[in-house]
Amino acid sequence: MAFHPLFANLKQDLRGALLEFIGTFFFLTLAFGGVQATTSAGGVNQPAPNALNVFIASVCFGFSLLVSAWLFYRVTGGLFNPNVSLALFLTGCIGAVRFVLYCIAQLAGAIAAAAVILALSPGPCSYNTKLQTGINPAQGVFIEMFVTSYLVLAVLMLAAEKHQVTPFAPVGIGLTLFVCELWSIYYTGGAVNTARAFGPAVVTGFPFGTQWVYWVGPCLGSFLGSVFYAILKHWNYTVINPDQAVTDARKSPQDPVVNIRQRAASILHRPHDDHESTLTNGEKPRNAVDDNTGMVQNGAPANRSGVPRDDIV
Asked: pLDDT of 273-300, one tens digit each?
């Protein structure tokens, strides 16, 4: 029986979804485990956020994604994030079936990772996401929207776009998550990923009433990042700064000293060029003979040969 064209690659889509589940589990066990270990090493169950905790948690998520994405990059693309999957679907990089299967696998992988770390680590779950005191849900939505859009744009520009440094895209993507976490983790818990917020919430019984923030904000970020990417593609951004991704040394800037000398020479010759340009505007050069008066333009009378006469006082 023939399948609908939408399910033409169903077998590969299912395999990809299974591997995304494993990859998401791999990524989040590293990230959740690092945060939980940091909390336990602090000697208290849930220490108040401070600069050191923010930095360490940001490192845990950023570098866990860098390593995990690099390992799975040639397998599934190393998405591990429903919001990245949504952006790839919106920009036509993946189909509808793969998008749905990937999202299910990523959410399931996050739940499994959160459960395993909670079971293996002492103390309560310290990697849940919640809004910091003083941050209202609207602020949380916009913070999550912006940081997710930055991550989405990094994936689209470094991984989806093919260029010389595409094989190193996981490095840039991981570092992007790291700096996004530096901003957002104190205020919202730094989800930047609906699955990352959903997994711990499931295993802890949704202790906070703001789970919707981590669905609305990152989804808006997916749309924002995708729209900006679409604008860049529509403008054919590669012609704005051409040859930026080439490795041909001949396209490098020339010797600055030579460049300065050439500019200086052009400036020194400019008066001569300006004089010649006046001739093109219909003006006669100095000492030219006026056809009507027989006088040169500097006021001296001329003979028939047109040469100024010096014997006339």
From this structure: 444 444 445 555 555 555 555 555 554 4
CA distances from 173 to 148, 165, 292 (A): 12, 12, 79
What's the pLDDT at 255?
86
Amino acid at 155: V
Name the residue among 70, 113, 106, 67 with its Cα closest to residue 86: 106
Cβ 161 vs Cβ 171: under 8 Å: no
Nearest Cα neighbor of 151 from 181, 170, 173, 182 is 173
Separation CA 250–CA 243 (nearest Å): 11
Rounded Cα distance between 168 and 151, Å, is 15
Judge contact between 58 and 174, C-beta under 8 A. no
Estimate to the nearest angstrom the gap between the alpha carbon of 121 and the chain centroid: 35
Q: Which two tokens stand for residue 87?
A: 């952006």
Count H helices, E strands: the chain?
A: 10, 0
Query: Tokens 């990230």 appear where?
Result: 31
The string of DSSP letters for 37-77 reads: HHHHHTTSSSPPP-HHHHHHHHHHHHHHHHHHHHHHTTTT-
Identity of residue 227: V
